[in-house]
Amino acid sequence: MALQSLDIARRSATTTPPPAVRETTEVAKLIDVSTCIGCKACQAACMEWNDIRDEVGTNSGVYDNPADLTAKSWTVMRYAEVEEKGRLEWLIRKDGCMHCADPGCLKACPAPGAIIQYANGIVDFHQENCIGCGYCITGCPFNIPRISKEDSKAYKCSLCSDRVAVGQAPACAKVCPTGAIQFGSKEQMKDYADKRIGDLKSRGYDKAGLYDPQGVGGTHVMYVLHHADRPELYKGLPNDPGISPLVSLWKGFAKPLANVALAAVALGSLFHYVTKGPNEVSKELEDELEKEDAQ
Amino acid sequence: MIRNPKDLKRYTAQERANHWVVGISFILLAISGLAFFHPAFWPMTQLFGGGVWARILHPFLGVLMALSFLSIFFRFRSLNVMTPTDREWLSRAKEMVDGNDHDMPEQGKYNGGQKMMFWALALCMLLLMVSGVLLWRAYFGFPVELVRFGAVIHAATAAVMIALIMVHIYAAIWVKGTVRAMWYGTVTRAWAKQHHRAWYRQVTGK
Ligand code: HEM
Ligand code: SF4
Ligand code: SF4
Q: 4Fe-4S ferredoxin-type domain location, by residue (chain A) (predicted)?
């Protein structure tokens, strides 16, 4: 969604500053896993607002439906059944883009302007600039972006950047019947999370906490978890996510260095020619052969 | 065109055509690949009709190049076996670079440097092919850790190989009378006697 333009914090494959005069508050969506009832109203609201309908799939025997994120399903509920202290717990997590402060997708993307991070923290894909290489998938620590089989563009949750731009909360937050999805400034959301965590602790969840992983600089979608010490219980939410060192190596300082090295080889060749001169066939040898021929 | 019937045949028409297929596909691969490699090169996607076309075409060009290189590899493999003379030549490569190659050890069809280039390019080609397939999201879906590894290998190998090819092309331009071997396949006897004397003796019997 190319709505805002003066409040861009980062732009993929761009080495000069993006337009950034307008300052906006950092926003966040808080998903309180402990009050989610798994009704999927958010999934439906996401389809509705973005006006995208995924193909109707098949029931795989569990509640997860669709079974995974797709180019047309930008958020899915993931249901985990775990046993804690002899009791069954049904842990339900709304999965989707985390809107990382340090987004691996944007770092990896080779197409200028295909991925934008706004000053408010939202990481948005601009499909008109996308070339469909899938580097964003390679860069993302949360396995979020999906390439459409129909148009070969990458898609994921936009945090309703179009709604947020005009002061509205994301569709999922608006529709959630239990208030498990909250939206506001990142500060407000952290304060709200503190209250929820206090409540959970008073009810015996002494490891309750906020999921705002610092390995990616914090996220603009955060979770309140009853078991914040073991996020992987929630269908594999990564414990300490960060941009893979391989991705940093691939996209880091080595690249400009390689550019300089290639330029040095090209210029080195030129100056070798200019300083040493061409390696000509010796006149002596040519004359010698001519003499042989004449005999 | 035969300028002088006494010129020596260095490459057959098939060998030259094969080399040009590899060369053209390599240049197109390097241009499109560099465009993904660093934003400084992004405008080069326009040569392919835009970023999407560059992304689509690059891997297919890669397959074309890999197959045609395989054919080159088998044609020239046995001519590129390293010998003790090559090692001696290599240890004195600095004289060659300085342009004082008159009393370097006698070389066969290829000198030590060319042989090293041959094997280095073969290794790069293998690494690029394997890592390139790992990156090919349109048709494959390898585990993400493997793809990340492939991305590092592909980008690093590509940079090395582009540098090697620049040296390869420069050497051909620098050593006068060489490029024609790739245009129409012949070199002069003086060229052969100066640069590849053992080969010269072998083909002329002198
Ligand atoms: C041998 C077969 C090859 C295959 C199958 C292959 C495949 C790929 C693929 C799939 C990509 C990702 C972009 C895309 O989807 O188009 C890529 C990127 C790239 N390729 Fe290749 N390629 C091959 C050979 C080469 C060669 C010979 C070069 C260089 C001379 C090269 C240079 C690059 C570069 C520089 C990138 C960008 C890497 C980056 O993003 O850092 N490739 N290649
Ligand atoms: S979760 Fe993945 S797709 Fe979303 S901002 Fe972070 S790196 Fe990008
Ligand atoms: S597929 Fe992902 S990484 Fe590639 S251009 Fe599109 S948004 Fe960027």
A: 27-55, 88-120, 121-150
Q: Is residue B122 part of a domain?
A: yes
Give, for all 206 residues of chain B, the pLDDT tens digit. 567 889 999 999 999 999 999 999 999 999 999 999 999 999 999 999 999 999 999 999 999 999 999 999 999 999 999 999 999 999 999 999 988 877 889 999 999 999 999 999 999 999 999 999 999 999 999 999 999 999 999 999 999 999 999 999 999 999 999 999 999 999 999 999 999 999 999 999 98
Is B165 within a domain?
A: yes
Q: Does a structural domain hold residue B2?
A: no
A176 labelled ligand-binding: yes
Write out the two tokens for B168. 């390869």
Mutate to test the pocket of ligand 2, among A74, A105, A212, A220 (most ligand atoms within 8 A of CB): A105
Is B58:B27 a contact under the CB 8 Å cutoff? no
From the list B85, B65, B170, the residue with the least C-alpha distance to B126 is B65
Structure tokens at B144: 């993400």
Q: For ligand 3, which residues put their CB under 6 angstroms from it?
A: A 12, 108-109, 111, 114-115, 125, 130-136, 145, 154
Evaluate: CB of B35 within 6 angstroms of ligand 1: no
Give per-residue pLDDT as tens, A190-224. 999 999 999 999 999 999 999 999 999 999 999 99
ipTM comes to 0.94
Number of structural domains in chain B: 1
**Torsion sign across C-alpha atoms A98, A100, A103, A106:** positive
Nearest CA in chain A to B143: A138
Give the C-alpha separation, B48 to B56, whole Å. 10
The model carries a pTM of: 0.95
- We find that the CATH architecture of domain A8-25+35-179+229-240 is 2-Layer Sandwich (3.30)
Q: What are the boundaries of each domain within chain A? A: 8-25+35-179+229-240, 248-294
Whether B17 is in a domain gets the answer yes
- Amino acid of residue B156: A
Residues 223-242 of A with CB under 8 A from B: none
Q: Shortest CB distance from B188 goes to which of A112, A147, A281? A: A281
What is the rounded CA–CA span in Å between residue A239 and residue A92?
Answer: 17
Closest ligand 3 atom to Cα of A147: 1
